[in-house]
């Protein structure tokens, strides 16, 4: 069981969908994206029905690391070089708008999700640290980002006891972390209070066009809707070939320690989050009660592999050897989605059929607002959606048969580079 699940009792189950139903908009997946869309639609008076295969937050939204990174998954210099300064600036502004909307929603609906500020990016090679410093200076100079603090090798022990890094950059305001399952459940309650409907344990089996409308099938029900939004990050490819061609699922692993007490400050100074520059990234954060949540390693099958907690623990001890005798009290994982450029795949695949997936680790902040952007587009304001839909996300190489073997080979190679 995840620490998130153990920290708070789940809400009462919502009934499965039965019989013939109608909705203005049918949303597949009760995660951050789907619920951001449902809340926006319901507040505008549009009839929204969310269909979830399991329980609210059972997918990527409820099992991830909870980290909130500023901007997009790619840094601003990368975006400027490929998209131009104007589009890069618009994407930065969109991410800032997303962060503000999520924070305001948490406050407005009193969502108890431990929202905390502070994100440390750690470099494991000198050249990568110089790159982090250059990007921090670029953000300060061109985007007005204030307060970023640099920690070279001499200063790094002031903020973390992590070993194997040559420096880090702390963003105390834009970055941070949250309990993602609590946030997801809170968005669900807010959407329902606004008038949206949510059905659980209702896996969607088929989506088909019927004239000017869409028909969504589950084992016990059908839904007729004017528009459909398919979410689910790494699990939605089974519903449409276009999503499968652009988004690859992978399974991530996480563990949580016992409360560390006085040792917590030796790990991270304060309840902040951190991630590193490795290709197979390590990411960790300190909770309010002084636990360390640590994520690292990936699998390319459909299930959590046997023995994964010890695998993640070894990665943790390579960075925090002082935790050798600390108990691991929780271990969990789930399926996320990645794309070739690590940018989200957001599209109107066919008229009235929208998709959002492949956040590549950036979905906690961007997911809810992407859902909002799609909802606003359905309502007539496509400004934000068009910006996201214009992101360059080509199909994964290798086609249907070879893309998974190619991904596995690439990630094995990246892991080898990390070890070197």
From TrEMBL:
Keywords associated with the record: Oxidoreductase
The FAD dependent oxidoreductase domain, residue ranges: 24-375
An example molecular function term from Gene Ontology annotations: oxidoreductase activity
Top EC class of this enzyme: oxidoreductase
Keyword Oxidoreductase found: yes
Source taxon at top rank: Bacteria
UniProt EC number: 1.-.-.-
Protein name per Swiss-Prot or TrEMBL: FAD-binding oxidoreductase
Organism, scientific name: Chelatococcus albus
Origin organism lineage: Bacteria, Pseudomonadati, Pseudomonadota, Alphaproteobacteria, Hyphomicrobiales
